[in-house]
């Protein structure tokens, strides 16, 4: 059942285990990237390599926002890089906060926060997409004339599908034939999310090759590559093999 905010009040516990077998990350020892039972959930953001991803996400926002405000003038198009970088920062928080959870109670809290942050990230991404589309219509600009444009479009629809599936799996599991069947596809939802993250990283790096960046912002390809590599280094080692069905 969903609350008035649209976030389910009683999200299901992870279907793949009972919380005792998902303590081992892809890299490191069991428990290295797990939330302590007496620790506040906000600490999940910096557990293990999470601090690297956190720093990279903040560096992304700082770099993009500085480039936009220091290389004005501010125009409608400026909303796009501002919104997309902020959306990426919030998306990273939604991943980091949920990864270390392993007990039933932790997962329930983490899933609610994860859903809320993902909704916020999607809303901000949508603002960025709408701003660039409105700008192109006003200026009769060409659509999808760059790799960045194609990757961004694919990522946008993928993100929407990812959120809808993730939300409905535990808000209205009847859509999947019941709670048991809904739970059985969680591992695919997680795997899809991590692949989507890689696509978003590729979209970020491709933005450095757009006309707007080359002519106005001046963000360097090497700098964006460093940032997204740090994001990956910070997030992927914390993945729990058991949560992916391994």
Which structural traits does this protein have?
246 residues; mainly alpha; 8 helices; globular; disordered N terminus
Write up what this structure looks like.
This protein has eight helices and no strands. Helix 3 (104-139) runs antiparallel to helix 4, helix 4 packs antiparallel against helix 6 and helix 6 (186-206) runs antiparallel to helix 8 (221-235). It is globular and about 50 Å long. The longest helix is centred in the middle third of the chain and has 36 residues, at 104-139. The chain has helices spanning 50-70, 79-98, 104-139, 147-171, 179-184, 186-206, 211-217, 221-235. With 246 residues, the chain is mainly alpha-helical.
Strand content: under 5%
Number of helices: 8
Number of strands: 0
Query: Topology as H/E string?
Result: HHHHHHHH
CA-atom Rg in angstroms: 19 Å
* Net shape: globular
End-to-end separation in angstroms reads 30 Å
Mean pLDDT: 86
- Helical proportion, percent range: 55-70%
The profile of the biggest β sheet is: none
> Structural class per helix/strand content?
mainly alpha
Poorly predicted residue ranges: 1-21
